[in-house]
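Protocol step 4 of 6: structure prediction from sequence.
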Amino acid sequence: MSGPYLSFPDADDVFWVDAPDGVTQPVYALNGPADAPAVLFGHANGFCAGSYAPFLKELARHHRVFAFDARGHGASRWPNGSLAELFTLDRFADDLGRIAGAVRTRLGDAPLAYVGHSLSGAAALMLETKASPHWAGIMLFEPPVFPPKDATASKEASRLEGGTARRRADWSSPNSFFDRLKGSATFQNFTDEMLRAHCSASLRPLADGGFTLACPPAVEAAIYGTNRIAALWAKCGEIAARVDLVSSDPTLPTPSWSSLTISALAERLSHSSLTAMPKAGHLMFFEQPGESLALITKRLREIAERVIEAPRTLLT
């Protein structure tokens, strides 16, 4: 690999957004048709923008696409400090607000929709409780919002936090990482193209050879822990924007805990819709990229039609 590490090196453009606490994040731009709706995409915990590269390139065939590496992930840079303070849901939300502003500077008056997966979906909800960016549309794929006193959710978060902290960080090559993940129950339903993209994007080259996870296990684990104690559930009733929720299949033999609570989340939101993806797990973008793309493009088409009718009106 030549040049500095980026999780999405073949994006059409990259620019950087700085946070007051010393975090710097890359935003990747993919050029779609000039008159197409623009969408900002946020990734899940432990992944990065480049993990979704094949999917995002397909999305960019008909839309202008922006994606970013969240703090602690991919090519983002962060200072030394308490992980529990650097990686709170509040800070992810504030980052998203700054990134949306930077993208809008490039777009001018063009409307901007947001699609968030997992952690980045929860960050969008938290941002809405603080200062809404007035997206043209918000589509969140199974944001993990923890209901109070929910034993199942708490147990799952503890399992993820503990298991992630023990994760192997260093690998000889993306191929060795691919071979290991392909045999794992979590990743076995990924398409090969999406899994290879993730394995290539999420490993940072080491100076003396080999690779290491660009999102260190300790950081990923800290995020599970801080998200679990976030007070987001209680604040969701304050959100006035329309939110389109997508969940994994709650009828799977081992369903995601969030697929079992997302209907209650939808009820807490003033304006929401809820769609479940049959036979898909929590990492649906990697298991069913085509179906995920179809859901997003359908919603963006609706947004485009609304903008044509009233160019200055945003969906709420």
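Step 5 (inspection) to follow. Residues 157 and 224 are 6 Å apart (CA to CA).
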